[in-house]
Amino acid sequence: MDRIKVLVISSVVPNARGSGGELVLYRQLKSNPEIHCEVVSWKEFPLRLKAIGKLGDIGFRSVSRAWECLFPVLPPLEMLHESIHSFRPDVIVTVTHGWWHIQARTVAKKFGLPLVSFFQDWWPDFPEVPSVFRSRVEQEFRKTCAASDVAICVSDGMRRELGEPSNAFVLHDIPSITKRERPRPDIELPLRIAYFGNLSEYGPLVESALHVVNGSDRARLEVFGPGPHWSSGAEDEFRSRGVYHRFIPSNELAESLQNFQAALVVMSFDTALRRRMTTSFPSKMIDAMQLGLPVVIWGPEYCSAVTWCRGGERALCVTDPNPLALRRTLEELAASPLEQERLANSARETAVSDFNPERIQAQFVSILRQAICLRNVSNA
């Protein structure tokens, strides 16, 4: 069967060294032998985009964000037409984060091409979008969902928030790690728990956990990640105590975590972020389970990770925002080798079922082919 020719028109583009959506797109598109992918990108950044960036650099960030919402910088239609005529894609793929998805749906409609859109997070609620413009951005967000032949949702919560459209499918992110075997560390105290991921919005929560949990002689929390949003002096303190480490690239993750006995996943209790917590899905949990690590989720009852876990008791859930509640749970886990083994087995089983990378990639290819087939029928 011929490879599927995919044209990516998106503010988020495939990047092997990126994070979040960039890495997901790379795994789905660039490392897939069934797909021939081309990415539309600027040959030279337009003056208006440079001006928006400069405003932010010199301290007028709110002005630059407002300007971008009012006058989003989109790729010229002529450039997109040229890409379509030269590449002749079977399908257009976009990510509904940023602005280029608006142009992706416009071009897909003009050329009668199927549009497949990733809904990985609730972009209208991000800090980059000033609150006064969020309803306008959400309108464009939902327009792209309606215009898509297939909307790929990262979670059940995302699909529900979009109104459960008939064109929406839930597809988890492909994990960073595909090798599931790792040496099992000896069961000893303190139990070593790793947190690796977002230290910006989740930074204050993680900081409070580090202060409280590491007062225990039975549990030791260690954190990996860039640019922590912590109180003054906290980074130096945690680094000197050996509980804060640098960011781990995905290709080093398995080796860096081989001596840990559990993983912590954090989702925010901030009510202002409720919709983002119900629609996003923590990719780090997927990676932890590839390693067979018992997972502890610290987040509100309504967040996607907890609701997913409740379906099969696949992780321990701490839904109390008080870090003392987290410490108690970790100490109880440290005292129960049987519970550690149960959770490790659950992680391994989930890694070969829900989070199986081969299965996720096969589902994605099937979705692309289905979108192409349906569009061909409608165009006939």
Summary keywords:
single chain; 380 residues; alpha/beta; 6-stranded parallel sheet; 16 helices; 44% helix; globular
How is this structure best described in words?
The model has no long low-confidence stretch (mean pLDDT 89). The strands form 2 sheets. The protein has a 6-stranded parallel β-sheet with strand order 2-1-3-4-5-6, with helices on both faces. α1 (21-30) links the parallel β1 and β2 (35-39). α2 runs antiparallel to α3 (61-70), α8 (203-213) crosses α14 (323-334) and α12 packs across α15. The protein is built from 16 helices and 12 strands. The protein has helices spanning 21-30, 47-57, 61-70, 77-87, 100-111, 134-147, 156-161, 203-213, 234-240, 253-256, 274-279, 283-290, 304-310, 323-334, 337-351, 357-379; strands spanning 4-8, 35-39, 91-95, 115-119, 150-153, 168-170, 191-196, 219-224, 244-245, 262-266, 295-298, 316-318. The chain has 380 residues and is of the alpha/beta class. It is globular.
